[in-house]
Amino acid sequence: MKFVETENTELKKSTAQLKEGIISIASILNKHGKGELYFGIKNDGTIIGQDVSEKTLRDISQAISNHIEPKVFPQITKEKHGDYNYIKVKFRGDDKPYFAYGRVYLRVADEDKQLSPKEIEKLILEKNVYSSHWDSEVCELDFNEIENDSFSNFIKKSKNAGRLPVETEKSAEVLIKLGLAKNGKLTRAAKYLFTRKHDIEIQAAVFATNEKLTFIDIKKFNQPIINILETSESYVKEKINWHVEFIDFKRVEIPEIPIKAVREALVNSLIHRDYNNPKGNEIAIFKNRIEIYNPGSFPLGLTPEDYIHKQERSYLRNPKIAEIFYLTKDVEKWGSGLKRIYYECLEKGVKVSFTSVKTGFITTFFRPVKKEKHVSTNPQIAEQLQKLSKTLGIRWSERWSERWSERWSDLTFREQQIILLILHHPKITRTKMAQLLKINPSAVQKHLEKLKNKNIIKRIGSDKGGFWEIIET
């Protein structure tokens, strides 16, 4: 057996060169996206052997995890040739640039070149992050592995949405035309979407407190991804609190967290997760919050605010999987997910946060604090405020009654109308307010200034692209 150092193969005499080996892994990933590293082999290809124990393999795994960002998940195995043991590290990853010990390297021939800041910037610009089309590559599965129920569900939803781009409903023909199968084999996207032949699961749990100490309920969902979204949404809907409001004299059940926002967070967690990472998605329901986690790092150099308050374009790690959820209308528009979650929660008075962590991304919905006494049960208050909302032609939300009684009942009639308009539509313009209130824009401006001076509202962002926010006390 002969080994040769190349652009995607690195040879090291022993784990005494572990740091150099980690740099080579990052360097090869930045150039080729996959490669192999061997310990116990000289750079001329001569096998000299290496002491190998379980601790040796763990130490290599931990060192790679601690010193390469974004995370990679290599296969580390003990190999044997004749009387010599050596170690094989097989790795792949699509989230370049990869940093080793805080620096970026690129493979050139059989050497690792450290890049300058300008070269790193160029690498990022030239690469188009997350466009490696990992989910378009074929796998070992064929058409027989497709679960008919999951595929029929997809066909039904996409047809109802008016987005199915083919006329036939035969699974093989649809998969080929959608780029989900090639030469009789399924792509990775089809494997995860329509079969159970994968190890990706969602772990869902309800905890007794605000910490992960004692759980009340716990479930694991391992299904075709196209079905797992519905299952996860149903779990959350079952475990959260609901209350009743009477809207136009009709009884309506209202969730404590807007279901549209929850569904958007769930589908985002499936579209943007790293399918190379064996770790599962998580739904954690605490007393004070709900966390939806996925093991997929956020785009390098960007923040959630870039998508919520700016016009940043979406980076799709799994474009084929995202396309299928678009066809079923579970995704409306690329790059709009976080914005839709944010504004849906803002409109419903629910606090939400987005956190990028080393191992992935978390969307957190904060559950409303329960109060023993709720003044909205007072029918006179509810009737008065519903009348006020009808003057503006908008729907009254029962949850606003308590806040009204505590802070806004002493405001003028016009000021209360403006508060209602902002609660209903935070991005409303002064011109639209003037039209609805049937007063001059200058008069609207005076009322807005008074509300700002009373520390009740504030403006977030520019006049054109910003929104109004009710200041909580």
Structure overview:
The chain is an alpha+beta fold and 473 residues long. The chain folds into 3 domains: 9-127, Methyltransferase, Cobalt-precorrin-4 Transmethylase, Domain 2 (2-Layer Sandwich); 205-313 and 332-366, Heat Shock Protein 90; 377-470, Winged helix-like DNA-binding domain superfamily/Winged helix DNA-binding domain (Arc Repressor Mutant, subunit A, Orthogonal Bundle). 37% of the residues lie in helices and 23% in strands. It is built from 16 helices and 21 strands. The chain has helices spanning 18-32, 54-67, 117-127, 148-160, 171-177, 188-194, 225-239, 259-271, 304-308, 319-327, 337-348, 379-390, 400-408, 413-424, 430-437, 441-453, and strands at 9-12, 34-39, 68-69, 75-81, 84-92, 99-100, 103-108, 111-114, 138-142, 181-182, 185-187, 202-207, 215-221, 242-247, 250-255, 281-285, 289-294, 352-357, 360-366, 457-460, 467-470. The strands form 6 sheets. Strands 13-12-16-17-19-18 form a 6-stranded mixed beta sheet, with helices on one face. Strands 1-2-5-4 form a 4-stranded mixed beta sheet, with helices on one face. Strands 3-6-7-8 form a 4-stranded antiparallel beta sheet. Strand 18 and strand 19 form a beta hairpin. Helix 7 packs antiparallel against helix 8 and helix 15 (430-437) crosses helix 16 (441-453). It is elongated and about 90 Å long. Residues 371-378 have low confidence and may be disordered.
